[in-house]
Amino acid sequence: ELKVEQNPLFLSMQEGKNYTIYCNYSTTSDRLYWYRQDPGKSLESLFVLLSNGAVKQEGRLMASLDTKARLSTLHITAAVHDLSATYFCAAANQAGTALIFGKGTTLSVSS
Amino acid sequence: KAGVTQTPRYLIKTRGQQVTLSCSPISGHRSVSWYQQTPGQGLQFLFEYFSETQRNKGNFPGRFSGRQFSNSRSEMNVSTLELGDSALYLCASSLRGGAWDTEAFFGQGTRLTVV
Fold first, then answer.
1. Cβ–Cβ below 8 Å for B42 and A99
2. Average pLDDT taken over every residue of chain A
3. Hey, is the C-beta of A70 within 8 angstroms of any chain B C-beta?
């Protein structure tokens, strides 16, 4: 059974500093997703990682995937207040018919 | 192009009642999946449909059911509502689902409150 673990669950960040969120998954998965959710809102797609060594960057966010270690990371560079939100990673099951989500990491950026 | 549309956005129901939620996927998308989000359990997969067929079902009681129509619109139904069914229900749309797809787009969700 595919399980996804994220850590930390809460992250209080200072503006301008760098942080990393970790996402481990338990069995083979072809795809790893990162989503952002603002309070009361839906999920916004950030990245889709499809292969070992994949790295994607958008602004201050960079995601990477190590399929051998079953680990994805979301790195935040020079945090700003606008990044305050909850971030979820999700792995697709083998058939691709379901996304299994981690518990989410709630980021709070303060000056 | 229009995104994933879920209706209604908010619902308040009484224990024991039943409820039907609707999801219209992005035009051309044939796979629709449903997720339940609660503070305690997080985001949990409910079921996935493609071309009117349920291809996968999560670990939920039989009170949760769904269907998909020929135009790819999907509905989910919860019967005999319990307080614990209070949640944000999210629908995701993708082109074909399965091993071929790489993106899933989520609707705004339906916030169900059971009192």
1. no
2. 93
3. no
CB-CB: which of A42, A45, A104 is closest to B90? A42
DSSP string, B75-88: EEEE-S--GGG-EE
Return the higher-pLDDT residue of A41 and B97.
A41
Q: Residue B58: list chain A partners with CB under 8 A.
A: 98
Handedness of CA B25, B3, B97, B57 (dihedral sign): negative
Closest by alpha carbon to B56, among B25, B37, B38, B35? B35
Residue ranges of E strands in chain B: 5-7, 10-13, 19-24, 31-38, 42-50, 53-57, 64-68, 74-78, 87-94, 105-106, 110-114
- Evaluate whether B35 touches B44 at the Cβ level (below 8 Å): yes
Radius of gyration of chain A (CA): 13
Q: Which of A30, A42, A95 is closest, CB to CB, to B106?
A: A42
pLDDT digits (tens, 9 = 90+) for A41-68: 899 999 999 888 889 999 999 999 999 9
Amino acid, single-letter form, for residue A103: K
Nearest to B6 by CA among B112, B108, B86: B108
In terms of Cα–Cα distance, which of B87, B78, B90 is closest to B33? B90
